[in-house]
Structures are given as structure tokens and as C-alpha cells.
Amino acid sequence: MIPESRIARAVIILTLVIVMGIVGYMTIENWSFLDSLYMTVITVTTVGFREVKELSTSGKIFTIFLVIFGVGGAFYTLTAIMSYVVEGEFRGTLWRRRMENKIKNMHNHFVLCGYDRVGREVAERFKKEGVKFVVVDRDKAAINKAEEEDCLYVLGDASNDSVLKEAGIEKARGIVVATGDDAENILITLSARSLRPDIFVVARSSSMETEPKLRKVGADRVISPHTIGGRRMAYLALRPASVELVDMLIGGMGEEDLLLEDIQVDEKSPLANSTVVQCNQYGESVRLLAIKKINGAIIAPPPPDAIIEVGDKLIVIGTRQQLRSLEGGAC
User: Fold this and answer.
1) How distant, in Å, are the alpha carbons of 102, 144, 158, 172, 275 from that of 135?
2) Model pLDDT, residue 192
3) What is the model's pLDDT at position 183?
4) Which of 322, 171, 200 is nearest to 261 (CA)?
5) What CATH number belongs to 3-101?
6) What's the pLDDT at 113?
7) What whole-number distance in Å separates Cα of residue 200 and Cα of residue 176?
8) pLDDT of 251
9) What is the three-state SS of the chain?
């Protein structure tokens, strides 16, 4: 039986015992409601006070049965409540320990700072893509929401180095700074960059004035939800089919859906020092749309004889299965 149901049942039993006692004393001894309630309470709780009035023989017999059933009901209610409290604390402690162990063992994940509407949207996308992440927020209500939605989390100020370390930033793939406070986002970005100079940082900005500051303290990408929302509305009005195609390429979930993906080429990749033609052949129908060179230059579309070098980032299109095959060789 779950604890909540057990408590409800115990309260109902105790209430019935008290009602039975009140009715019994009012009927047998002809006492007032208050005297009957008082006598019932001191009998059930066994506090040992004197009777309100002298009991008749029938009243004494009734009191004996009330003690037997009443004390049992009170004890059952007390144990149910204590069990709920203790078990709840135990479950909470056990869950926190398991969560802490999961976070400690995580790598190549994202640290998501801020869990308001924007942060929850990021988390929802991560879940759909199967990406591991840890939520960090100092607001208890936000953390409660993250817990309800089965997210791993750390309660604390994300601008604090120890909190970021607890969220596993030292082994993280990247950090998304998505709080609604620009000043806080600047501090978090600065802290993340000082701990991990190589980490990829995506930061949220609520105003145009904050964007250059976030870039200056180390943000790789700065996103303004208001700007993106307005830009998207304009694109939907002007080029609806193109926007729908891009949405499909970015957010496809099935194995056969086409996806747009970034692939990093490292020293072990068989694609290193190969040509675009060879890359397309290796990828089994995956199409290479663009190459982002290590200096930031983007070649789109790349010529067939272009050389893919270590450090390049490939922008490719294909099904999830095709991309998985190519990515396994490239990363």
C-alpha cells in the first residue's frame, strides 16, 4: 500500500472511532457533545485524566471497548504518519545519492543553467534528441519542476565554480546559459570559461546591449529569444516552405527522417585529408553541404576536389542511420 493511501485509511479509522465514542457517551450516559468529545479524546489518547462524570456500568463497558479500538486506531494513525515521513526522507536521500552518482559518471553532456520557459524548451529538445544534460538553478521552484520532469539537477548558483563542478562541467560537452537575468548569464559564462577554456558556451541575452558583453567574456554563441522569434516570424511570412524544411532537417526524430548535422573531423577520422567526393562515397548517400574551416571560414557548397582537414567541421545531411555510420568514423 502506498504511504498516502495508508495515511488516508488511518485517518478515516481514527475519525470513525472518535465519532463512535461521542455517539456512545451521548447515548449511554446522556452527556453533552463537548463532554462526550472530551471523554473520547482522553480515552483514545490514554492520557489518564479523570472521567468527566461518574460512569454507569454500561458506560464502563463501552469505555473498555473504546480503549481497545481507540488506542489501536490512534497507534495505527501515528505509525502511518511516521512511516510516511521516514520513508519519504529515505526515498529523497536515496534519490539524491543516485542522482549525484549519475552526474559524477556523466561525460560529454550539457550543463543547462536556468530552468524557466526557455530552459525547459532546451531540456525538451535535449530529451527528444537523446542528449544527456544536468539542470542548474538556484530557484527551488524551478528545481522542483525539473525533478517532476525527471531531469538530473543541481540546486545552487551556477556562477559559483563549485556548483558548476558538481554539475560535471569538467567533463561536459558544452554549457547552455539560459537564465532570464543578463548579469547572471555574464557571470556564469565567465565562470564556465575560466573552468573550461575549451568548452562550447551558448548564452541567452535579453537585450542587444548584453550580446557583445557575453561574447567578450567567452560565449561562443549568443541567442536572443526575442530577436529569434521576430526573425522566425518574418521568415515564415516570406519563405514558409524553406523554414518548414529547415525545421524538419533539424528536428527529425525517425530513423528515416532527414537530418542536418555537424560532424567534427579529428586525427583518427578516416575522412581526414580526403576529398568531398570521397566523403560522400564513405557516408552512404550522406551529402556534404558545407565545410567550416578551423579559421571560421565556411565553404558552401564545397567543390568536389576540396580537401577535408583535421579540425574541420562538416555540415551534412542524411538519415539518422546514415549519419550514425559517418559520425562513427569521423569522431
Assistant:
1) 13, 11, 10, 12, 41
2) 96
3) 94
4) 322
5) 1.10.287.70
6) 96
7) 9
8) 64
9) CCHHHHHHHHHHHHHHHHHHHHHHHHHHCCCCHHHHHHHHHHHHCCCCCCCCCCCCHHHHHHHHHHHHHHHHHHHHHHHHHHHHHHHHHHHHHHHHHHHHHHHHCCCCCEEEECCCHHHHHHHHHHHHHCCCEEEEECCHHHHHHHHHCCCEEEECCCCCHHHHHHCCHHHCCEEEECCCCHHHHHHHHHHHHHHCCCCEEEEECCCCCCHHHHHHCCCCEEECHHHHHHHHHHHHHHCHHHHHHHHHHHHCCCCCCEEEEEEECCCCCCCCCCEHHHHHHHCCCCEEEEEECCCCCEECCCCCCCECCCCCEEEEEEEHHHHHHHHHHHC
107-228 domain in CATH 3.30.930.10? no
Distances (CA, A) of 251 to 130, 202, 225, 244, 298: 12, 19, 18, 10, 23
Regions of the chain where pLDDT drops below 50: 1-2, 255, 329-331
In CATH terms, the superfamily for domain 240-330 is Regulator of K+ conductance, C-terminal domain (3.30.70.1450)
Question: How much is the pLDDT for 198?
Answer: 93
The confidence score (pLDDT) of residue 49 equals 66
- Alpha carbons within 13 angstroms on the beta-carbon side of residue 202 total 15
* Residue 146 contacts residue 168 (beta carbons within 8 Å): no
pLDDT at residue 256, rounded to an integer: 55
Look at residue 92 in the predicted model and tell me its pLDDT: 61
Contacts of 244 (CB under 8 A, 6+ apart): none
